[in-house]
Amino acid sequence: MKNKRAEFSSTFGVIAAAAGSAVGLGNIWKFPYITGVYGGAAFLFVYLGFILAIGLPVMLSEFIIGRKSRKNAFGAFKKLAPKSLWQFVGILGVGAAFMILAFYGVVAGWSIEYMFSAAMDGFSDKSPDQLGSMFGTFIESPLKPVFFQLIFMVLTGAIVIVGIKDGIEKNVKILMPILVVIIIVLDIRAITLPGAKEGLKFLFHPDFSKLTGEGVLSALGHAFFSLSLGMGTLITYGSYIDNKNNLLRTAVQVTTADTMIAILAGVAIFPAVFAFGIEPSSGPGLVFITLPNVFQQMPGGYIFSILFFLLLTVAALTSSISILEVVVAYFHEELKMKRKVATVFATILIALLGIICSLSMGIFKDYLFFDLNFFDLMDWISANLLLPLGGLFISLFIGWKFGRKKVRAEIEKGGSISELFLSTFMFLVKIVAPIAIAIVFLSGIGLLKI
Ligand code: PHE
């Protein structure tokens, strides 16, 4: 049937898809690495504050916009606020999706490569230093990382062509719990390493004097990135949610799961970072350098390491398809491309951008923009500029344009909410989120001194 939109079949399907989108490299790769760069616990606490005060309300807002409009990120605003500038929020989101998936695919490619290295017993008998240089040599080489990135992009495109619904639910139901179990096993091994205490202190004992404006902006950007917010992913997914679903409960569950997994990942990494004398601020390689050391020191480490990188790749896939879906739904519904054509076209464009990201780690590393290589530039612009801006407009839209009455009506299709909750939510999206985002944003980019 033409234009019949798919819907997730069950409540669990919705949670699985949204959690599948949220949980990914953001939790396991990016969260530990930026927490390390920005000094540890203080960053974590600010991040948690943003998740609660801004992330959760914006997530609920995206679900509301998506389900009410039953459209892609751009079409949703066009439908709910015809002939207005709001639709540009959707365009911003499509742009962010391009940039994010470009570097995301590169990191997912690293994970695939590490899965093979693990299978070939490539970590054993190597010192922390050797593991560090192994990672450095790998990401700088011009061919291998590009090859694995392309494999990942083909997988992403293929799943989106087959239809996201069928792929996700099964994956998330079985594989995500296994990933969580593996991370918990890693946690136990990490905190029982000699010298592990330092790491826990680094992660949980805040020293707020270490915080910088840029750190706070990154915490905000990462709250959006990790929850898949600010670019219409959850508007797009929300458009496939049926009316019986309790949107608030779904948002709370997804946010909780995402945050727990990030913290669990942090607990696996930082004790080990200190135990093996790795620099916490080592950057994007942190997880890839640290965990192989842990695998070496545990019984069954060989099997665990293969499984871990396999499941990390799967977690990355359930996120990458949600990013690609934003672009594909837009191309298909707004630019009237056939879905398959849209998918192939978007995948190729993003993969090309991804190749540049990958090469910017090695042969192009001297081409810097504002002191960042192309990979970091894509990451910085999308996470720290586009997603917070998107989140700002989404909360303004729900707070001031869509309004309290319609918010209540949409949420209550699938469950009742109290007056107090509604007032708190409206206050957060009308006032708190926009002001906080504006301040953090302006001071993070250096336009406001506080
Ligand atoms: N949330 C995903 C992760 O943490 C990444 C993502 C960002 C997905 C933005 C969709 C939109 O890995």
Count of alpha/pi helices: 18
From the alpha-carbon coordinates, what is the Rg to the nearest angstrom?
Answer: 21 Å
Total number of beta strands? 0
Helix content: over 70%
> What is the H-and-E element order?
HHHHHHHHHHHHHHHHHH
**Silhouette:** globular
Layout of secondary structure:
Layout: H1 11-22, H2 25-37, H3 41-69, H4 73-80, H5 87-119, H6 128-140, H7 144-162, H8 164-191, H9 196-204, H10 213-226, H11 233-238, H12 247-275, H13 286-296, H14 301-333, H15 339-359, H16 374-402, H17 404-412, H18 419-444
Helix pairs in contact: 1-8, 1-12, 1-14, 2-10, 2-12, 3-4, 3-9, 3-10, 3-12, 3-16, 3-18, 4-5, 5-7, 5-14, 5-15, 5-16, 6-13, 7-14, 7-15, 8-12, 8-14, 9-12, 10-16, 10-18, 12-13, 13-14, 14-15, 15-16, 16-18
The structure holds phenylalanine (PHE).
Phenylalanine (PHE) binds at residues 21-22, 24-27, 100, 225-226, 228, 231, 233, 319, 322-323.
What does this structure look like?
This protein has helices at residues 11-22, 25-37, 41-69, 73-80, 87-119, 128-140, 144-162, 164-191, 196-204, 213-226, 233-238, 247-275, 286-296, 301-333, 339-359, 374-402, 404-412, 419-444. The protein is globular. Helix content is 76%, strand content 0%. The longest helix has 33 residues, at 87-119. With 450 residues, the protein is an all-alpha fold. The relative contact order is 0.20. The chain is built from 18 helices and no strands. Phenylalanine binds next to α1, α2, α10 and α14.
